[in-house]
Amino acid sequence: MSRVLVVGNLTIDDVVLPSGETRMTTLGGNSVHAAAAVVTAGLAALLADLATRGVGRLLVEGGTELGALPEWFAKSTTAARLGTPDALNVMIFSVHGDTSYGTFTAFLHAFGVPWAIVCDGAVYQFGTGKQQVFEQVLSAGVDDSDLQKAVDRASAGESASFSDLRDLGENSGIFTLAEGWDAATESLEAYVNLIAPGQLAEAATVVGRSKPRQGWHVASATGCPNAVDALYGKLLRRLGVT
After folding, report:
1. Angle between helix 63-75 and 188-195 (nearest 10)
2. What angle do CA 62, 233, 41 make, to 5 degrees?
3. What are the CA-CA distances from residue 112 to residues 64, 104, 175 (Å)?
4. What is the pLDDT of residues 176-189, one digit of tens each?
């Protein structure tokens, strides 16, 4: 049974299922209140989930990831060897945008729950006016000297390539399928369109506007890509499953 969160004249319907799955979201009222309420609903689901023990929690950016990644992970050769997310109780949560990783990470860190992040490429870039993903993790209270050094170098005006920041992030639990931070390559949707051209558009005609449903539709119709299989292996190692 789904939950409904009402904030003033805002209703968010089918945001979170007891399993942690996110479904179609209907927003009304002020958009700022809408964003805050979606994050609040996600945190409420995360709190409820903490009673269920498992190897850790995976934070993803949005609905497409929430629909596609669990389906692909379950089909992977890594899952055949080590276990599916369901079998290992690796719960996957959407943070609903690339500025909310810090909020969710702080929550998990405070409870001592192992975590990993899968984000798009744009949030690796410094100086965009939004908090970079390393800054978000540090703001969550995580003590990580490597991330802090990267932030300090950026503050001093030193530049770093996307690949260097991506590799550094992996050592601290931050992962991506992106090959860059430019608009053409930074999102999971761009990755899906690269490995399964036209299938997201087709999914939209079949399942409607819901990003989780679109992601699931594409992943259910395709095998697990090698890069996603490798990503799942890295995530499990981060969470202590080897």
Report:
1. 50
2. 25
3. 28, 12, 20
4. 999 999 999 999 99
